[in-house]
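lol forgot to send this yesterday, sorry. C-alpha cells for the thing we talked abt
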C-alpha cells in the first residue's frame, strides 16, 4: 500500500477527490513525456487551497514540488517521493486597462492571445514559449529579444512562512533565468503585467512572424522541454553543440535535434535516463572542445530507478 495513503486522506479535507491522484505517472504531466510516478499529485483550484496543501505537506514532513504544466521539467524514471502540487487549474486571465493579471497556471500563449484581443502590445515575444505564467516569472522566461522582466509589474506569491504577499518588480530581482522566486523558493500565484496600447494588426503580424520562425527552426513536432541549456556568457549553446558535431546525435530515444541543436527531443519511447545521458554527453563534448560549461535550463527532479 502506498505510504502516502494517510496523507491523501487528509488532503480530501482540502481538495475534491478528482484533484488528488496517487502514483500519478509524471510522463503524463510533462512535455518531455518521460518520468516515473509521484506518490501524490494534487491540483488545487484556488489560492487558499494552494496555501493549505503546502501547509499540510510541511506539517506532515512531505517533500513537495510546485509545477505549472511541466513544460520545463525532466522527471527521472524512478519518479518522485512526496507530492507534486500542480497549478494548472489556476488559469484565470483578466484585463484592467493596460494591465493583464494572470494566474500562475495560465499559459503564456493564452495571455498573448488575450493581449492581442485587447490590442495590448509588449507580450508578443512570449506567444510561442511553452509553459505557464508562474514558471515564466520564476525563470524570467524570454525569447526573440524580449523577456518577462520587460513587462512584469508585480507577482503575488506564497512566502516561506505560508503568507500571501506581493513582490514588486525590484523585489523580484529578475536576471537571466533567475529571480528572487527561485532564490528563496517562493510559490507564484498571480502575475500582473504592464503593457501598452498598440495596433491590433501590427501585434498580430508580429505574433504570426514569431510563430512562423519557431515552426521553421524548432522541432515542435517532438516532445521536449524547450531549450535544454542556458546561454553561456559570450556564446550560444546551440552553436557550441553543433560545432561539437553533436547535431542529430542520439542515445536511446533521445536526440539532439537535427533541426535545432539547442533542443534535446524525445523521438519516441525515450527514458529520462536516455535524456540525462545525452545531456551529459553534450556537456562533456562542449567542455572538451571549447572549455565552456553548459548548464541546463530544464529543471531536473526525482529519483533514478535504482534508488527506489
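and heres what i got for the seq, position by position
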Amino acid at each position: 500500500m502506498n505510504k502516502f495513503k494517510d496523507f491523501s486522506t487528509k488532503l480530501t479535507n482540502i481538495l475534491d477527490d478528482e484533484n488528488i491522484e496517487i502514483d500519478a505517472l509524471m510522463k503524463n504531466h510533462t512535455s518531455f513525456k518521460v518520468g516515473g510516478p509521484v506518490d501524490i499529485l494534487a491540483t488545487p483550484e484556488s489560492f487558499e487551497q494552494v496555501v493549505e496543501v503546502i501547509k499540510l505537506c510541511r506539517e506532515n514532513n512531505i517533500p513537495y514540488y510546485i509545477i505549472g504544466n511541466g513544460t520545463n521539467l525532466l522527471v527521472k524514471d524512478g519518479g518522485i517521493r512526496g507530492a507534486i502540487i500542480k497549478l494548472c487549474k489556476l488559469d484565470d486571465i483578466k484585463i484592467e486597462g493596460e494591465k493583464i493579471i494572470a494566474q500562475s497556471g495560465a499559459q503564456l500563449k493564452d495571455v498573448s492571445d488575450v493581449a492581442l484581443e485587447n490590442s495590448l502590445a509588449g507580450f508578443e515575444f512570449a506567444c510561442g514559449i511553452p509553459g505557464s505564467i508562474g514558471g515564466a516569472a520564476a525563470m524570467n522566461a524570454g525569447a526573440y529579444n524580449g523577456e518577462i522582466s520587460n513587462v512584469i509589474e508585480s507577482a503575488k506569491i506564497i512566502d516561506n512562512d505560508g503568507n500571501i504577499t506581493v513582490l514588486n518588480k525590484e523585489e523580484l530581482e529578475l536576471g537571466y533565468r533567475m529571480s528572487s522566486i527561485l532564490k528563496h523558493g517562493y510559490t507564484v500565484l498571480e502575475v500582473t503585467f504592464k503593457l501598452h496600447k498598440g495596433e491590433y494588426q501590427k501585434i498580430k503580424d508580429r505574433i504570426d512572424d514569431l510563430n512562423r520562425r519557431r515552426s521553421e527552426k524548432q522541432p515542435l513536432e517532438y516532445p521536449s522541454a524547450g531549450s535544454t541549456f542556458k546561454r553561456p556568457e559570450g556564446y550560444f549553446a546551440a552553436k557550441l553543440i553543433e560545432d561539437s558535431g553533436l547535431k542529430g546525435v542520439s542515445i536511446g530515444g533521445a536526440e539532439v535535434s537535427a533541426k535545432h541543436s539547442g533542443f534535446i527531443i524525445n523521438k519516441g519511447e525515450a527514458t529520462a535516463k536516455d535524456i540525462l545521458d545525452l545531456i551529459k554527453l553534450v556537456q562533456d563534448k562542449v567542455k572538451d572542445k571549447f572549455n565552456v560549461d553548459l548548464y541546463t535550463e530544464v529543471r531536473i527532479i526525482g529519483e533514478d530507478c535504482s534508488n527506489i
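The mean pLDDT is 95. anyway ping me if u want another try
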